[in-house]
Amino acid sequence: MKYEPQVIPDVILMTPQVFGDERGYFMETFREQDFMRECSPLRFVQDNHSLSSQGILRGLHYQLEKPQGKLVRVVSGEVFDVVVDLRRQSPTFGQWVGVTLSAANKQLLWVPPGFAHGFYVTSESAEFVYKCTDYYNPGDEYSLQWDDAQLSIDWPLVKGQAPVLSDKDRQGYSLREAPCYD
Ligand SMILES: Cc1cn([C@H]2C[C@H](O)[C@@H](COP(=O)(O)OP(=O)(O)O[C@H]3O[C@@H](C)C(=O)[C@@H](O)[C@H]3O)O2)c(=O)[nH]c1=O
Fold this sequence. Notes:
Bound molecules: dtdp-4-keto-L-rhamnose
Radius of gyration: 16 Å
Largest sheet: 6 strands, antiparallel
Number of domains: 1
Strand order of the largest sheet: 1-2-10-7-12-5
Oligomer: single chain
CATH superfamily: Jelly Rolls
């Protein structure tokens, strides 16, 4: 596994070593000892899997009281995955990182606690799989506005069309109003 810190260095893009043969391929997608050394000593307690159609945008989500670190990847299709630094003490507060994750590139992204996270589906559909370092806590969930002007995220919108959002995500907080991590 290759571990590459991004412009926000706590955010790490991981590229597995893929062993192809006549049967198909094999890859390791998580190895705790290496993950702890390269990314974080936190342990994972929940695994999630979602399916979304093209044009769906889920996010940008975070939990405030019980922040979740997330190790995310795509097992079918392609998404543009975005993380936003919401740690007020961070030199990169309010900055974002976006990467393309796909079944083809097999990359994983480590999203540390303290970040909002979301993704936009660019393929016909996408299955998204991730591990979390804390449990889902619905009362503690917040949504940051995907198109906040201050964030100015460069989403690769298909045919320039507005993304499809959940009701909750249509009422996301602007960065200015959003409760953040102190
Ligand atoms: C996230 C989550 C949802 N649910 C339920 C609540 C609800 O009825 C249904 C759909 O929930 P949501 O609309 O919040 O699902 P979704 O919009 O896919 O939420 C996810 O978005 C991505 C971007 C993330 O980063 C995740 O942490 C999570 O917030 O599933 C759980 O039971 N456990 C969970 O961990």
